[in-house]
Every structure is written in C-alpha cells, then in structure tokens.
From TrEMBL:
InterPro entries referenced in this protein's UniProt entry, alphabetically: Glyco_trans_1 (IPR001296), Glycosyltransferase_grp1 (IPR050194)
Transmembrane segments: none
MF (Gene Ontology): glycosyltransferase activity
Glycosyl transferase family domain mapped to chain residues: 194-332
CDD domains (alphabetical): GT4_PimA-like
Protein name: Glycosyl transferase family 1 domain-containing protein
Length: 393
C-alpha cells in the first residue's frame, strides 16, 4: 500500500477529482463516479469560474449536482474541498495547483496527476531548460511511489517517462462521455456529409478540412462540409473557400451549443479532425464516434491514437499525409461508411465511455491500495486504466 497508508476494503472508497473549471465531459465522468460510488463518496472541485473562451464556445456552469464544490464560491465550499483533499482515499489532480496536494503526496496517500502531454511543441534543448523550474515544482519534488499518472492521450506518459517520471505508474485515461445508445439505424447520405468542429486557429488546421473536401470532390465523391466554430482564422478560411472553388460545398456555422453540435454529428457521415500534435486529446473525437461518425484524424492526436481502430472504426493518417485515408473513403459505399460509424459507436460504448472509466478507476484504485498493488498492471490491456507504456513521442 502506498506509503503504508491503510484502506478498509470493506468500505466504499472516497474519491476526489480536482479540475480547473466546469465542463460537460467532466460532469459525465463525475455522474458516472457518483453512480458507482454513491453520492457521499465522490466530489469534484472546480477551481475557477468558466473562462470567457469556454463561454464563447457555448459552455455553461449551470450544474446543480450535489457532488460539485466550487472553490471560489464560498469559504464553506473551499473548506470542504480542503477536507476532502486531506482525507479522501484517492485524489485525482487535473489542472489544479500542485501546492494543494503536495502535503498529501508526501504523506504517502494515493494521488493521481491527470494531464495531457507536456510537450505540445517539439522539446528543443532550450525548451527543456526553460521548463526545468516547472518540472521541479510540479513533478520531481513530489516524485513518490504513491503519486501516479493518468495519461490524457497517447503521448502524455511518454513525455514524462522519458524524463524519468511516473515510470511504471502511468495509466491510459482521457476525457469521457456517457455511454452512447447503440443500434440506432442511420440512413446513409447520397451526398457525403463531412463535419469539422473546432476553433479556427493554427493548431486546428482548418485549411486541411478544405483540402480534404476538395480532394474528395476531385475524386468523384459528391460531398458537403459543415464547419462549426470561430476564431482568428475565420476571414482567411472564408477566403480560402472561394479560392479553391468550394463556396457551394462548405457551410460555416460559427459556434454552436453542445446540443447543436451533437445533432450535427448525428447527421454527418465523416468527421474530420485535422489538429496536429499540439492537440493533447481532442474531445470531439469521442463525441463524433459516440454519435456514429467515421472519423478521419491524425495519429499525432492524443485521443485518435487510442480511440480509433484504423480501417475499422475510422482512419488515421501520419504527418499530414491524409491521401491514403481518402483513397479508402473513396472506395467505400455510403452503407460501408455507416458500418464504420456503427463500429466507432460500439467501441465507445464498450470501452471509452464515462461508465467504463468510472468502474475501472475504482478498480485500479482498490488494487493500488491493496496488499498486492503490483497486480494493477494486469487488470486491463486496453482502454481506460490500462498501463500506458508507450515510449515514443
């Protein structure tokens, strides 16, 4: 057991999740944890109010769940959060200051860091040196056997393992949605419906979505692209639509509510996820697959590399070379694409949903707190809470 801390296996675990601000996917996970542990045994702490950027995207903190503690809202809620940090059996530290869990970690209590990749840009020597104070404060100074890592994305654990951190203590994780309803028949579209959803910014590479649409049209596949989102590249994207002759084939909607986005996904055949390696996870991959879309995404994307089974539930491409994936799409009938969408939805329902993540999180914690924590690596071979042993960035 970590640091000699005792745990009564006859009682339910008390688990605390610390995060920076409210998000709908964190609430999906929180509700699944409450369903699994009971209302008295789980809390989620929001450190800050919803940011202006998230509000612009349609996010709202209007949740009334009993499990929520809002750090900034009152001394009472902050004091309760601090009590949970000190006394919970397990604390999962998302984007939350390390200072509040440092004493807990040093006391030998089971704690998880839950984060995306460290190096969203190529880790040059200068970048490594400039991040050294951050690494010492947040990692090396609390590098203990009871401090584990929940890796949000394919490359998150490797970035830290390569620095000698969390080796043998890294587990696959992510952001999660509720288990989707499977088996709903979708009528294939004669005109291939493409969907893209993100901020119109360089890391999201919106121009690539236009290139893919143009390539499909040139390959003889009638299609239409809907782009949801806004941002600093809006004017340039609009101009590019004209430049490549796509005015009648692309619709720019601006930001939509989460509910509207889901409805678009339910109508789409293919979801294009064009972000590069700077995207740590990519929640829209979860959402699109859960709603029956065949997803085309870069293997550099944290979520895509774990969620998509290439050629079965979507397509992965490497180093912006999406041509092989498009060639496969051009050979598929509408019903063939629909079948891949169903496979994607099934994978999310069976493995990468909030309910499975909650069940596995509890099982992993129980094993790590048991008299034989080494067996935790044998619990799962794929999906949430399986060992994250990837070594390359």
């Amino acid at each position: 057991m970590p640091g000699g801390v005792t745990y009564n296996s006859g009682m339910s675990l008390r688990i605390l999740f610390l995060t920076n601000q409210a998000s709908y996917h964190q609430m999906h996970f929180a509700r699944a944890m409450v369903a699994h542990l009971g209302a008295d045994n789980f809390r989620i702490v929001f450190h800050q109010p919803t940011s202006d950027a998230r509000t612009e995207m349609g996010w709202r903190d209007e949740y009334e769940d009993r499990c929520i503690l809002r750090w900034w809202q009152s001394d009472v809620e902050r004091d309760e959060a601090l009590e949970w940090i000190d006394n919970a059996d397990v604390v999962i530290q998302g984007r939350f200051p390390i200072g509040f869990v440092r004493a807990r970690i040093r006391a030998g209590k089971l704690t998880f860091a839950c984060q995306e990749r460290l190096w969203k840009k190529t880790p040059t020597v200068w970048r490594r040196l400039s991040r050294l104070p951050h690494l010492i404060k947040n990692y090396y100074s609390v590098d203990r056997a009871n401090y584990h890592f929940l890796a949000i994305g394919r490359y998150a654990a490797a970035d830290l393992n390569n620095l000698g951190l969390f080796r043998g203590r890294s587990w696959r994780y992510g952001y999660f949605m509720h288990r989707p309803e499977v088996g709903i028949d979708r009528t294939p579209n004669a005109c291939l419906q493409l969907l893209w959803c993100a901020r119109l910014s360089p890391v999201k590479q919106p121009y690539m979505a236009l290139e893919i649409t143009r390539a499909l049209l040139d390959g003889g596949r009638e299609c239409h692209l809907t782009m949801i989102g806004d941002g600093e590249l809006r004017t340039e994207v609009d101009a590019q639509i004209n430049q490549v002759g796509l005015r009648g084939h692309v619709t720019l909607t601006g930001w939509q509510t989460p509910e509207q986005v889901i409805e678009h996904m339910r109508q789409a055949d293919v979801f294009l996820m064009t972000s590069h390696h700077g995207e740590g996870w990519g929640m829209v991959v979860n959402e699109a697959m859960s709603n029956g879309c065949c997803v085309i995404a870069s293997a550099e994307l944290g979520a895509a590399a774990w969620l998509i089974e290439h050629g079965q539930s979507g397509f992965l491409y490497h180093r912006n070379d999406y041509q092989p994936a498009l060639e496969r799409v051009l050979t598929l009938s509408p019903s063939g694409l629909a079948a891949m969408g169903r496979a994607a939805q099934q994978r999310m329902a069976n493995l990468w949903c909030a309910e499975v993540a909650a069940e596995r999180t509890v099982a992993l914690c129980e094993q790590l707190l048991s008299t034989d924590p080494a067996k935790a690596t044998q619990l799962y071979t794929d999906g949430p809470c399986s060992p994250s042993t990837e070594s390359k960035r």
